[in-house]
Each structure stands twice: as structure tokens, then as C-alpha cells.
């Protein structure tokens, strides 16, 4: 009678299994499931056997799983790989991989040699940091991404160069300095120097189309391009000797 009473009591006190708890069965060792759920190992084993779930066997680590070590917190990776936290932590220690700390990375000379040679995402994976952190550091060093040619740094402006700004049209100054017209125009505006663009007078316009653009430019002190633009603006065809 006493034995029957104890059996009945244990059945009453037995905690019902939820679907979430049952989903853990067979994913890790029974003793680990028992620890997580606060149940006895015998209860876990009995429930697993009743549901005909095979016992957990330690599966080997794949290369893809090893590559994920240190890329995220151990606990999160354990959930993703359906492994125990201790398994993930132990594997990371065996591989000598540092724990993820995305907020701080001490860049070494060896680390920086990788920048610009490999894609930022690949470097991030190797160093166990975020891709954004890699990109920011590469840009801070002025390095282009791999496969892209680094643009030549703009030629510094000397005082003698700046002295020419505004003394003629941007085209003329650009030609004298061997710079682009856009570069000259930007620098002139940065220094607040007004443009010295000449406005064509009625007398000057009378030469357009009656002489070659080169001759008009020589006589009036314009560039050939300026003469050609004015001629096109006036709707006059190029001069041709008859």
C-alpha cells in the first residue's frame, strides 16, 4: 500500500512537459537538458525514450561552424548551432579565438596590411569585428576598397597659383596652371575672388565669323574656345576662306 501511495504521489507531482521543453530532447546530452529544465536526468531520459527520440551524440564541428566562432556572443551562437554553451565556449578556446567585442579592436600593423587588399566583410570575419568597423578604419587611413584604383590627391595650391585667380577667365587660368577649369573655379569661389569674365562688346562681336577663331582670339585676347562658344551662341558658322 505504501509503494502504491508513493507512485501516486509522484504522478501527481510530476510536472507536465511543454512542447518547448520536448523540442530540446536529443539536441544535447540528457544531463544538460535536465540542468536547463530543472528536471532529473532520469525523467528526461524517460521522456525522450517515450517520444522515440534518439539520444544525443556529440557531432563533429564542421568548417562552417568553426568559422562562426567569435563572430557573435557564445550564447547566441549556441542557440543558432543547436549546441550547448559549454560546447561552443570550449571549442572557441581550443581554436584560440578571442571572444567577440565589436565595440573595441586594437588594430595592429598586421591587421592594417589586410585593408584594401581583401573585402571589408572578409577582414571583419578574420578579425572577429563588424564590417562597419573595418570600413571606418580603412577610410580613416585613406585606403580605397580592393579592386579600386586610389585617386590621385589634388595638387596643393601655392600662393603664386592663387595670385592668378580672377586675373582672367577660369579657362585661361586653368590653362596657365595646368589644372581643370572646375578646380580653378572652386578655388576662386572658396577665396571669394570674383570672376573676371569679359563681356563681348559690339565691336568685338563684329569680328566673329569674319575671321578664323584662332585669329579673333589672337587679336582680342580671348581663348580659341571662348571665341568658338561666342560664335555658336550667335548662331554663326565657322569661318572658311573662299
Descriptive report:
Helix content is about 55%, strand content about 0%. By secondary structure, it is mainly alpha-helical. α3 (about 30-35) crosses α4 (about 40-50) and α15 packs across α16. The chain is rod-shaped, with a radius of gyration of 39 Å. The protein contains 16 helices and no strands. It folds into 4 domains: about 1-50, no CATH class; about 65-140, no CATH class; about 160-190; about 200-235. It has helices spanning about 1-15, 20, 30-35, 40-50, 65-70, 75-80, 85-95, 110-115, 120-125, 130-140, 160-165, 170-175, 180-190, 200-205, 215-220, 225-235.
What layout of secondary structure does this protein have?
Layout: H1 2-13, H2 19-22, H3 30-37, H4 41-50, H5 63-68, H6 74-81, H7 85-95, H8 109-114, H9 120-127, H10 131-140, H11 159-163, H12 170-177, H13 181-190, H14 202-205, H15 213-220, H16 224-233
Helix pairs in contact: 3-4, 6-7, 9-10, 12-13, 15-16
* Assembly level: single chain
Taken as a percent bin, the fraction of beta residues is under 5%
Roughly how much helix do the residues carry, as a percent range?
40-55%
SSE string, helix = H, strand = E?
Answer: HHHHHHHHHHHHHHHH
Low-pLDDT stretches are: 1-5
- What is the SS-derived class? mainly alpha
- Summed up, the helix count is 16
Mean pLDDT: 79
Total individual domains = 4
Straight-line N-to-C gap: 134 Å
Which of globular, elongated, flat, extended, rod-shaped describes the shape? rod-shaped
Q: Give me the count of strands.
A: 0
Sheet having the most strands? none
Integer-rounded radius of gyration:
39 Å
